[in-house]
Amino acid sequence: MGKRIVVALGGNAILTDDPSASAQAKALQQTAEQLMPLIKDNDVEMVVTHGNGPQVGNLLLQQLESDSDKNPAMPLDTAVAMTQGEIGYWMLQAFTAALNHNDMSDVPLVSVITRTVVDPADEAFDNPTKPIGPFYTESEATLIKAQYPEWKMIEDSGRGYRRVVASPLPLKIVEAKAIKPLLDASALVTVCGGGGIPVIESDTGYEGVEAVIDKDFSASKLAELVEADELVILTSVGDVFLNFGKPNQQALGTVSVSDMRSYLNQGLFAAGSMKPKVAAAVSFVENTGKKATITSLDNVENFVKHGSGTCIIPD
């Protein structure tokens, strides 16, 4: 068995300024090609997870626009499942092309619809924080709020206003046991789209709930469950920074997990961007004693060749 890694893709790997299906599929073609250095030597088993915040938000808007007694809008958990299916399809198409281009057409591919168990008593249900869907101006957000008063809208990182929904922590990936044999067969697997379909345990199995789970936390939990050797979180920047965007910003290279936990506890990372990624990576290292890396998609080749990026290691 080769090295096993779980790769978490950021939203920039899928959605460009054009939200059309063709544009998103094209973006993923480039993403798949950029990931090939991770597996080109045929000694790495790779699981790929991805976000779906923009896609599920846009789909919900489409659902609401056509909502009627004869054609009722689907709930949020079903919308997450629908976007898992569409993005999974685009990813299969993109990885097929990339594998063929790199003379690895014998690598089997599969996309797995994935359910993620959450706690119904999670405080996140009382305090929605996860942005989904498009950005709105302040005036547009006011109109949206008047139309859907139950929605919570927040200003997001200076880029506009977005709807936010509950984002409970993942407790278990239901399909994890089924994913491990696929990896043992050297398949390239895409799973946990948008963090997975949020479900709670019930007397008959599982019941869907209205939430969107953070994809980095789900990737961390999945990496634990499939016994990955490393978690790799790909974002828009090559390193994690202290004092990001300030004159004294400092890029972090190799950092002990205790030091990174201390930085987290001091509130040194932005809540809407780097904080959840760092928290997910720290959780994986603390729970497994293995390393996690945060870097950019554009930096993958340098990461493979030189180990660049921010690497969190056990104490």
Automatic annotation (TrEMBL):
Domain of life: Bacteria
Pathway(s) annotated for this protein in UniProt: Metabolic intermediate metabolism; carbamoyl phosphate degradation; CO(2) and NH(3) from carbamoyl phosphate: step 1/1
Gene Ontology CC terms, in alphabetical order: cytosol
Keyword Transferase attributed: yes
Keyword tags: Arginine metabolism, Kinase, Transferase
Domain spans labelled Aspartate/glutamate/uridylate kinase: 3-296
A GO term for molecular function: carbamate kinase activity
GO BP field: L-arginine deiminase pathway
Sequence similarity: Belongs to the carbamate kinase family.
Entry-linked NCBIfam families: arcC, PRK12352.1
Identification of the protein by name: Carbamate kinase
Organism whose genome encodes this protein: Pseudolactococcus plantarum
